[in-house]
Design a protein that fits this description.
Elements lengths: L3 E12 L2 E12 L3 E5 L6 H8 L7 E6 L2 E2 L11 E4 L11 H11 L4 H14 L15 H13 L5 E5 L7 H13 L5 E6 L2 H7 L2 E6 L2 E7 H7 L4 E6 L7 H9 L4 E7 L2 E6 L2 H14 L4 E7 L3 H8 L2
Parallel strand pairs: 3-8, 3-9, 6-7, 7-8
Antiparallel strand pairs: 1-2, 1-4, 4-5, 9-10, 11-13, 11-14, 12-13
Length: about 300
């Protein structure tokens, strides 16, 4: 078992009668990109605030890189970086000035501070904007600067709370590419409700619903576990007249458990994949149909999430 970068036991938080986070046991291996997935209000931000010591738990304990963070120990802030969902900066500063300011907060020497400022500006592709006022930055630039400030003191763990939720496609692409390039350098705890983002960059996924952790699994293992055998056929429009007869023949097959169709597209759920792969195409030929698409479809993380969080 890999050494844990983030660990918590029985971590919970109540606000009056509301149980924002039910007792949580979690272990995130060092060096992974961990996706914490849930609907809005599921408890993702509460969890991050507890793990980083920004909120006190009702019960339980948490450790980041071996340092307990639930006791508000000032030493803990050196072992992680944190980017909140809505980061705020001193807008009259430039990125170079702001990162230098962050370095001073961590008592970094002049030489180390200058080196890290240059490294961070290059990492987040803000070198050309280093002397511009932050006030004029786009959303994507703000998020990239936020990641830079969170990494300025070289922490082993990085917490990102919904880093792409307010970005346009270009901004999301740039931020996700940056997160992907951090793989193996730091442990990333990424909370999000955007399933495509998590599926793209995360090694391991945890799903939370109404304050309760439902599961934690490797991304590929999760998709395999909830895989459904579905074959998609698209019938050439010149052959659509034969579709009702073909659907009827499909429903008679022992290896077919369901058929859905939308126009000329058929989505066939099968119970015995080997039989389906062997017998489907001969059935198509027998019905004298012409296909424009034949595909075995794996489930997406979105399908798995909707199944588990319903």
């Amino acid at each position: 078992m890999q050494e844990a970068a983030i660990r918590c036991q029985g971590l919970s938080r109540r606000y009056g009668r509301i149980e924002a986070l039910k007792p949580l046991d979690l272990c995130v291996p060092r060096g992974t990109i961990f996706g914490f997935l849930g609907r809005n209000g599921a408890g993702k931000t509460t969890t991050i605030r507890l793990l980083t010591g920004l909120a006190r738990p009702s019960s339980g304990e948490a450790w980041v890189s071996g340092v307990e963070t639930t006791r508000a120990d000032s030493a803990a802030r050196r072992v992680f970086g944190y980017l909140p969902q809505d980061p705020a900066f001193y807008n009259w500063m430039t990125p170079r000035e702001y990162l230098d300011y962050v370095g001073r907060l961590f008592d970094m020497s002049d030489a180390r501070r200058r080196r890290r400022v240059a490294e961070m500006l290059e990492l987040v592709a803000l070198e050309d904007a280093a002397a511009r006022r932050i006030a004029g930055f786009s959303g994507g630039m703000i998020q990239r600067l936020g990641i830079a400030q969170a990494l300025m003191h070289e922490p082993p763990v990085l917490f990102l709370d919904e880093p792409t939720s307010a970005l346009d496609p270009a901004g999301r692409y740039a931020v996700l590419d940056l997160i992907n390039r951090l793989r193996g350098q730091v442990t990333v705890f990424l909370s999000s409700h955007i399933l495509g983002d998590v599926e793209r960059v995360c090694d391991t996924v945890g799903i939370i619903r109404e304050g309760e952790l439902l599961l934690v699994a490797d991304r590929s293992e999760l998709l395999d576990r909830y895989a459904s055998n579905v074959i998609v056929l698209e019938i050439d429009r010149d052959f659509l007249g034969k579709l009702p007869s073909f659907i009827k023949r499909l429903q008679e097959q022992h290896w077919v458990s369901g058929v859905k169709h939308d126009g000329g597209q058929l989505r066939i759920t099968v119970s015995e994949l080997a039989d389906a792969l062997r017998m489907l195409l001969p059935l198509v030929v027998d019905q004298e149909l012409q296909l424009t698409r034949y595909e075995w479809v794996r489930p997406s993380l979105e399908e798995v999430f909707l199944t588990l969080s319903a």
